[in-house]
Amino acid sequence: MRMRIDRLDVALLRQLLKDPRAGMRAYARDLDVARGTVQSRLSRMERAGLIRSFAPQLSEAQLGFPVLAFVQLHLAQGHLDKVSAALSAIPELTEAHSITGEGDLLCRVVARDTEHLEDVIQRLVGIPGVVRSKSDVAMTERVAPRVEPLLGLVRDED
């Protein structure tokens, strides 16, 4: 069930996305509310799962993994849970989603170079239950991952 958020929550989320290191006092000052209000609202949003992490976003490329690929996995019937569990053993896999359509899982993977990418894909297809794969290598990021524009679409439920 979706958590109810109001205008102050949206304003606080915008502040958090704009300057995640500002701190409670700065958010409270900018929003003209008490520091305790900011803390309780952030805690509530975190408990509800709206805020998933306060961790920094790291650049895979700067860590030495500049190659990004999206790998679609096709699975044998009944193997989704086992294959999904096995994916966590592959450190270069950064995300995996069950999908509709031709494939069963869409995986986001990173690699040092194309040879390393081939090795990662071979490990993916070597998981019992994976029948085949289809890979697309990303060339250039055109729109970075973002959530902030969605805040403008949130209806005030105050």
Characterization of this structure:
Helix content is 36%, strand content 19%. The protein has a four-stranded antiparallel beta sheet. It has two domains: 7-56, Arc Repressor Mutant, subunit A; 67-137, Alpha-Beta Plaits (2-Layer Sandwich). The chain is of the alpha+beta class and 158 residues long.
Task: Note poorly predicted spans.
Answer: none
| Relevant CATH superfamily of the largest domain | Lrp/AsnC effector binding domain/regulation of amino acid metabolism (RAM) domain
Specify the helix fraction band: 25-40%
Outline the biggest β-sheet: 4 strands, antiparallel
- Number of alpha- plus pi-helical segments: 6
Distance between the termini: 17 Å
Number of strands: 4
Instruction: Say what the CATH topology of the largest domain is.
Output: Alpha-Beta Plaits
Question: Residue-averaged pLDDT, rounded?
Answer: 94
* Biggest sheet: strand arrangement: 2-3-1-4
User: From the 3D coordinates, which CATH architecture of the largest domain would you assign?
Assistant: 2-Layer Sandwich
Quaternary assembly: single chain
Percent of residues in beta strands: 15-25%
- By CATH reckoning, the class of the largest domain would read Alpha Beta
Q: Supply the number of structural domains.
A: 2
Structural class by secondary-structure content? alpha+beta
**What's the order of the H and E elements?**
HHHEHEEHEH
Strand and helix map with partners:
Layout: H1 7-18, H2 24-31, H3 35-47, E1 67-75, H4 80-87, E2 93-98, E3 105-111, H5 114-125, E4 130-137, H6 148-151
Antiparallel strand pairs: 1-3, 1-4, 2-3
Helix pairs in contact: 2-3
